[in-house]
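Quick one:
INPUT:
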């Protein structure tokens, strides 16, 4: 029987791990440089040299303009490169804008326990026409209230940014879609998470906690299978620094009984937005993809 050192085993696994990570990014519409890809690689971080070696050994991967992409994804390389350039130009201003929005949100919605920036702004593929995805942890019985709060406050916020570029996904009749609740989890759903697969672990890994870092850490420590996919999550919990809690409205103003009315209101708004996209197949497909990756935590599935 042949014996292999841990280093040899890791080297043999590197091409498959790199390919899995590139596929996770591709499904989200962007790509990363070898160094950044190595930092978030499935199975644990890899040095840039190891990523480049894995790409060179792979028939399905290549490096284009310092981005690691799948060869069969080359027809969309211009869009991927545009996302990288857009992120470099716009992300700083939108990060500052999002921090300000989150401060207002948690001040008026005391049932919100944690907020993380997600999606393209967190992952490195943000374009100015995108919206900002937010993941939330909320008190039990307040998921729909949180959805309505994000969208109502988001609409007021967007009215001040009516000149923002839009696409078929972010175009709305009154003001652009700017802040979006991507994933809303109740505290009782955290231990254990119903999903501890690679996609959910990756969602946490690329998220940026901006409020309530202790809830983020609770998810990671209470669901160890997530760290089996991405051991980097442990370091992320140690390094997460979030803003101090501001003065907030009292929680008794928002009893859980209000969640039913919020669900009715939120569902009506959701159906209306889907109706406005009825002639936009790419936008509908993108919404369907995001909802599929968030199940069983999506709202309004019924």
């Amino acid at each position: 029987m042949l014996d292999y050192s841990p280093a040899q085993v890791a080297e043999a696994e590197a091409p498959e791990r790199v390919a899995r990570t590139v596929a996770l990014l591709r499904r989200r519409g962007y790509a990363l440089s070898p160094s950044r890809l190595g930092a978030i690689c499935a199975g644990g971080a890899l040095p840039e040299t190891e990523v480049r070696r894995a790409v060179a050994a792979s028939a399905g991967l290549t490096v284009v303009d310092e981005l690691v992409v799948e060869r069969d994804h080359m027809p969309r390389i211009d869009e991927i490169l545009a996302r990288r350039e857009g992120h470099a130009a716009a992300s700083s201003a939108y990060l500052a804008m999002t921090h300000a929005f989150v401060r207002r949100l948690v001040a008026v919605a005391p049932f919100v326990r944690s907020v993380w920036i997600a999606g393209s702004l967190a992952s490195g593929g943000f374009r100015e026409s995108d919206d900002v995805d937010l993941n939330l942890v909320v008190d039990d019985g307040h998921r729909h209230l949180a959805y309505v709060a994000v969208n109502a406050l988001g609409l007021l916020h967007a009215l001040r940014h009516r000149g923002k570029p839009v696409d078929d996904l972010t175009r709305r009749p009154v003001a652009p879609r700017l802040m979006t609740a991507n994933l809303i989890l109740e505290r009782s759903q955290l231990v254990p998470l119903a999903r501890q697969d690679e996609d959910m672990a990756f969602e946490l890994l690329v998220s940026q906690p901006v409020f309530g870092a202790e809830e983020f850490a609770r998810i990671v420590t209470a669901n160890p299978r997530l760290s089996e996919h991405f051991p980097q999550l442990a370091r992320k919990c140690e390094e997460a620094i979030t803003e101090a809690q501001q003065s907030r409205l009292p929680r008794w103003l928002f009893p859980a009984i209000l969640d039913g009315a919020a669900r009715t209101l939120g569902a009506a708004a959701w159906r209306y937005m889907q109706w406005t996209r009825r002639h936009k197949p790419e936008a509908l497909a993108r919404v369907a993809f995001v909802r599929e990756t968030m199940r069983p935590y999506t709202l309004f599935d019924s």
